[in-house]
Design a protein that fits this description.
Blueprint (H helix, E strand, L loop, with lengths): L5 E2 H8 L3 H10 L5 E3 L2 E4 L1 H14 L2 H14 L18 E5 L4 H13 L7 H14 L8 E4 L13 E12 L7 E9 L3 H15 L4 H7 L3 H13 L4
Parallel strand pairs: 4-6, 5-7
Antiparallel strand pairs: 1-3, 2-3, 6-7
Helix pairs in contact: 1-2, 3-7, 4-7, 5-6
């Protein structure tokens, strides 16, 4: 364990729960933790991965609660996450010409590099490919949320999101075998901001009209305008 990891009290504060609630969750194996010298300790990285899994399985109400927890845990110096502000028009491809799983990953990383904020698309592609091999990020609705297992701040000038839409769907590892044609690449500079971005984007994906905007917008500017409108409608 490192000095940045949680004990029972600090994790309870981070999750806005009572220490007794966190202890019960740990004892039941609901939250990843281990005893060290008779005391519960929780790895920061494992807690972030646990939250990422919860985001992936959450409905709108749960997502709003998770986003609230993450926002309250953020420092006052961290601005609110706004998805549209993280998506330069230069990092949007309508269409994305990729035809295979491997080329999607490479092309999405090159697309992100078009923004000028990603300096090493090859390294990002390698990390994203490793994450996809570990556990695919494709959802049942035709969307994949590409990202590395851990943020790569050393090759990023700032956080960004790229988006590409292929002309037809392709197998990308969705649990139910659905084809994928809508691809986001989330490039974050730390675990906490990645989770906040993932929660916010997941809420947008579940909002009425969002997937239609992804599929039918003709230009990056049209897409960004519609996304901005929909994001403003999200309850805070």
């Amino acid at each position: 364990m490192t000095r940045d990891d949680f004990d029972l009290d600090s994790l309870a504060k981070y999750l806005h729960l009572l220490p007794s609630q966190v202890q019960r969750m740990a004892e039941r194996g609901t939250v990843p933790g281990r005893r060290h010298g008779g005391e519960w300790r929780f790895s920061l990285a494992e807690i972030h991965h646990w939250l990422e899994d919860r985001i992936g399985a959450a409905d709108e109400k749960d997502l709003q609660n998770v986003e609230g927890v993450l926002n309250r845990a953020a420092s006052d110096l961290q601005p609110p996450v706004r998805i549209v502000e993280m998506m330069p028009a230069a990092a949007i491809a309508l269409p994305l010409e990729s035809r295979t799983r491997s080329s999607v990953i490479d092309d999405m990383c090159e697309l992100a590099a078009n923004s000028g904020y990603l300096w090493d698309p090859e390294k990002m592609a390698e990390a994203v490919r490793a994450r996809e091999n570990l556990h695919p990020t494709a959802l049942e609705n035709g969307i994949a949320l590409l990202h590395p297992r851990r943020p790569l701040p050393q090759i990023l000038a700032q956080p960004l999101i790229a988006f590409g839409r292929t002309g037809s769907g392709m197998p990308f590892g969705a649990e139910g075998g659905q084809l994928t044609d809508l691809f986001f690449l989330i490039c974050s500079v730390d675990d906490a901001s990645h989770l906040r971005t993932l929660a916010r984007l997941s809420r947008l994906i579940g909002s009425a009209g969002f997937i239609e905007a992804l599929r039918f917008s003709e230009t990056p500017q049209d897409l960004l305008a519609e996304m901005s409108r929909l994001e403003l409608l999200l309850p805070e």
